[in-house]
Amino acid sequence: MVAHALSVRNASIRFGGIHALKDVSLHVADGTRVGLIGPNGAGKTTLINCIAGGLAPDSGEVDLFGKSISRLSAPARASRGIGRTFQNLELFDSMSVLDNVMTALDRPLRRGGRAATRQRRDRARSAMATFGIEQYASVPAGSLPYGVRKLVELSRAFVREPRFMLLDEPVAGLSETETFLGVLVDGLDRLGCGVLLIEHDMPTVRELCERVYVLDTGAVIAEGPFAEVATDPRVVAAYLGADAV
Ligand SMILES: Nc1ncnc2c1ncn2[C@@H]1O[C@H](COP(=O)(O)OP(=O)(O)O)[C@@H](O)[C@H]1O
Ligand SMILES: [Mg+2]
């Protein structure tokens, strides 16, 4: 049996009176892209935080390539190969785009002399080239339009060459979705790793994801190929609306 790239088993978490995740299990095979959809407040970002290590679930396990990462810190999980982007971009606004991308690289690489710095710079420039933002290398991230900032955020995640990628609404809030999507797909193709993608934009999910999980009030209510899930009456009732299919 091939181990899944990512497995979440029976994850539950409460925030006071809110049961944000209820016994959630989810699996992603290596090299496949899986969508995670559901209404606002369904628990999608909470689940990603439990996978990346920013939050510890009250119960449940997370495995990466068949090995438990449940008890590792977020940086340790990143070192094992978990990459992520944040729904609310986490950039250093006063730093240049190049420095933003370079600082995403592993700590051991930050040490060392000029050769190590050059290597980090080359890797950063290559990630920026993937997303077409080399021309902004010396521009402070905070001064750029939202769409470019999203690409900086993606470059920061991609530069580490993760073995598994978590994307929290990478397309949300963008006007030119199509161009952006093409760039994102190229980048993901090049990386070739498994992906868990949160996204409200249904055409994006349909194009990118082989399978989707639907969360509603903290529980998985459906799972399967997009076309099947999108017509599931429970999903339509919870979220999609008949015109989304
Ligand atoms: N740190 C937190 N403290 C308290 N409640 C939280 C926290 N994070 C999320 N929640 C609550 O948990 C639920 C799920 O939130 P979230 O995972 O952000 O949903 P989604 O990403 O699907 O929109 C919401 O009711 C939200 O208000
Ligand atoms: Mg969210």
General description of the model:
The protein is of the alpha/beta class and 245 residues long. It folds into two domains: 1-81 and 162-245, P-loop containing nucleotide triphosphate hydrolases (Rossmann fold), CATH 3.40.50; 93-161, no CATH class. Helix content is 38%, strand content 24%. It has helices at 44-52, 74-80, 97-102, 107-110, 114-130, 146-158, 177-191, 202-208, 226-231, 233-240; strands at residues 6-15, 18-28, 33-37, 59-64, 67-68, 82-84, 164-168, 194-198, 211-216, 219-224. It has a six-stranded mixed sheet with strand order 6-7-8-3-9-10, sandwiched between helices. The protein is globular, with a radius of gyration of 18 Å. Bound molecules: adenosine-5'-diphosphate and magnesium ion. Magnesium ion (MG) binds at residues 44-45, 87. Residues 15, 18, 20, 38, 40-46 line the site of adenosine-5'-diphosphate (ADP).
